[in-house]
């Protein structure tokens, strides 16, 4: 129970525990036999921020010691952050399998962000491979397949600063690869 971070509820009835505490109790029960292989379904559902962080620290320690851990989740940010390998399944068939970076690279979309005050939206939208343009968190955000040409344009033809280039997020890749 200590390993799962719930030793404080050892004398409580399960039905009186919070959802996150019940989830950690399930994890503690799964660890009782010290399995070499652990399968977890939505392991952090109902957990608070600190409990979730502690859970993933514990899982990383287990993995470092050689335990194989498979988890199913809809929290794709967690999969992106903590999984060594991600498998995306659509209608029973594997549509992507690899490291988080390999899976995210299945999408041709890149996201170029920059602080810029004076832009010609039509010119940017006419660049090869540009799919969309908008503003998020005070930055210009361009979704495109050719981030090099977009970055070159921004750096040479505008007052862009703090340029960032990123792959599409795992959630977006998931939706692209699994929708009908």
List key phrases describing it.
single chain, 180 residues, alpha+beta, Rossmann fold, Alpha-Beta Plaits, four-stranded antiparallel beta sheet, two-stranded parallel ribbon, 7 helices, 8 strands
Short description:
The chain has 7 helices and 8 strands.
Question: Which secondary structure elements does this structure contain, and how are they paired or packed?
Answer:
Elements: H1 19-31, E1 37-41, H2 49-64, E2 68-72, H3 76-82, E3 86-90, E4 93-98, H4 100-104, E5 110-115, H5 121-126, E6 130-136, E7 139-144, H6 147-157, E8 161-167, H7 170-178
Parallel strand pairs: 1-2
Antiparallel strand pairs: 3-4, 5-7, 5-8, 6-7
Protein model, in words:
The protein has 180 residues and is α+β, with helices and mostly antiparallel strands. The protein contains 7 helices and 8 strands; from the N terminus they run αβαβαββαβαββαβα. It has helices at 19-31, 49-64, 76-82, 100-104, 121-126, 147-157, 170-178, and strands spanning 37-41, 68-72, 86-90, 93-98, 110-115, 130-136, 139-144, 161-167. The strands form 3 sheets. Strands 6-7-5-8 form a 4-stranded antiparallel β-sheet. Strands 1-2 form a two-stranded parallel ribbon. Strands 3-4 form a two-stranded antiparallel ribbon. Strand 6 (130-136) and strand 7 form a beta hairpin. The model has no long low-confidence stretch (mean pLDDT 87).
């Amino acid at each position: 129970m200590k390993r799962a971070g719930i030793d404080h509820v050892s004398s409580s009835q399960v039905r009186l525990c919070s959802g996150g505490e019940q989830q950690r109790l399930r994890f503690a029960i799964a660890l009782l036999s010290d399995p070499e292989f652990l399968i977890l379904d939505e392991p952090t559902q109902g957990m608070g921020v600190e409990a979730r962080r502690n859970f993933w620290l514990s899982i990383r320690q287990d993995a470092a010691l050689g335990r194989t851990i498979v988890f199913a989740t809809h929290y794709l940010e967690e999969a992106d952050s903590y999984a060594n390998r991600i498998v995306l399944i659509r209608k029973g068939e594997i549509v992507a399998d690899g490291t988080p970076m390999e899976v995210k690279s299945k999408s041709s979309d890149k996201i170029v962000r920059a602080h810029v005050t004076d832009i010609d939206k039509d010119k940017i939208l006419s660049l090869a491979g540009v799919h969309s343009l908008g503003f998020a968190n005070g930055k210009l955000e361009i979704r495109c397949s050719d981030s090099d040409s977009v970055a070159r344009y921004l750096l040479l033809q505008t007052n862009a600063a703090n340029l960032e280039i990123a792959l599409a997020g795992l959630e977006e890749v998931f939706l692209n690869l699994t929708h009908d």
